[in-house]
Amino acid sequence: MARKRPPNGSPPPDVRPRATAKGGKRKKKAAAPAAGPLINVRHMNRRDISRVWDFLKLSFRDVNAETVEYQRPRSKHRFEEIFEEEGIEQLLFEVNGDIVAYAECSYEVTGSDNWINPRYFEKRDMRPLFIDELAVHPDFHGRGVGSFAMEQLQHLARVHGLNHLVLEVAENNERALNWYRKRSFKKLDAAIFMAAPVDTEPELLPPRELPGPREPEPRPSDDEDKS
Ligand SMILES: CC(C)(COP(=O)(O)OP(=O)(O)OC[C@H]1O[C@@H](n2cnc3c(N)ncnc32)[C@H](O)[C@@H]1OP(=O)(O)O)[C@@H](O)C(=O)NCCC(=O)NCCS
User: Fold this and answer.
1) How confident is the model at residue 108, as a pLDDT?
2) pLDDT tens, residue by residue, 168-209
3) What is d(CA 1, CA 159) in angstroms, rounded to the nearest whole number?
4) Measured in angstroms, how far is the CA atom of residue 142 from the centroid of ligand 1?
5) Residue ranges of the domains in the chain?
6) By alpha-carbon position, which residue is closest to atom 36 of ligand 1?
7) pTM of the prediction?
8) Atom 10 (ligand 1): residue with closest C-alpha?
9) Rounded to the nearest whole angstrom, what is the distance from the C-alpha of residue 148 to the centroid of ligand 1?
10) Closest protein CA for atom 15 of ligand 1
11) How far apart are CA 149 and CA 145, in angstroms?
12) Mean pLDDT (whole number) for 15-31
């Protein structure tokens, strides 16, 4: 990720230690980088729901704009329902009280609209923690927030005796895909959206010239009627 420029647009200050001329003063030790803010993780509360919903819409805006697959987050109603469901963890990561990341995971395949076949994992002796959502505030990308959230999820899996993390990611979400690959995630199997062009034709036929009005048929004569 590109480093942020200072607010006035001037180039970033050179932080490399400068060599001193021979006989000059002793080289000063390079100052340790200033400590950044603390990141804190906690469980989401009911009163956080609206704030987290807004956070998710913002965090997925760019991904959604480029994705054909289902959009995230789904609906506020569904999000409120999730809060009530058993077996789902919703974690908030905050810096100075502001939400910088959200992670949602579940211990079992739950819900009537789930996308997973549990026997796939049973056959392979996999006990997964399902990561249903992971999002970092765009202003905090590339600062280790996602890595911290992932570490927290791994920790949850470990303490619950689960030996895999499983998630779904849109194939064209390149940034996330590469990020997961670097963290040892491998593709299991998935439906891939495919598209083929079709030569199109207008639904309605073009205008057509009609023949001129017909000559009226000669009426049968009275004599013919009588015969
Ligand atoms: C994918 C996503 C979760 C990654 O989160 P992130 O906070 O940017 O991730 P990190 O900062 O931990 O890691 C990003 C990179 O920054 C680097 N980094 C880590 N700490 C850093 C720091 N203090 N300063 C600068 N760079 C740092 C890491 O080395 C990492 O590089 P790597 O991938 O080569 O290892 C985030 O981009 C995101 O929320 N995207 C939108 C939503 C989304 O797509 N979610 C996934 C859908 S399933």
Assistant:
1) 84
2) 888 888 899 999 999 999 998 877 777 778 787 889 999 999
3) 33
4) 4
5) 40-186
6) 136
7) 0.76
8) 144
9) 9
10) 142
11) 6
12) 47
Q: Return d(Cα 82, Cα 199) in angstroms, integer.
A: 44
Tokens of 76: 């506020």
From the alpha carbon of 180, which atom of ligand 1 is closest? 1
8 alpha carbon to ligand 1 midpoint, in Å?
26
Answer CATH for 40-186 from 3.20.20.80, 1.10.260.40, 2.60.120.620, 3.40.630.30: 3.40.630.30
Count of Cβ atoms closer than 10 Å to residue 99 Cβ: 22
Give the chain's largest Cα–Cα span. 141
> Does 173 sit in the ligand 1 pocket, CB within 6 Å?
yes
Q: Is 102 exposed, middle or buried (0-12, 13-18, 19+ CB in 10 A)?
A: buried
Q: What does 38-59 look like in DSSP terms, one character per residue?
A: --EEEE--GGGHHHHHHHHHHH
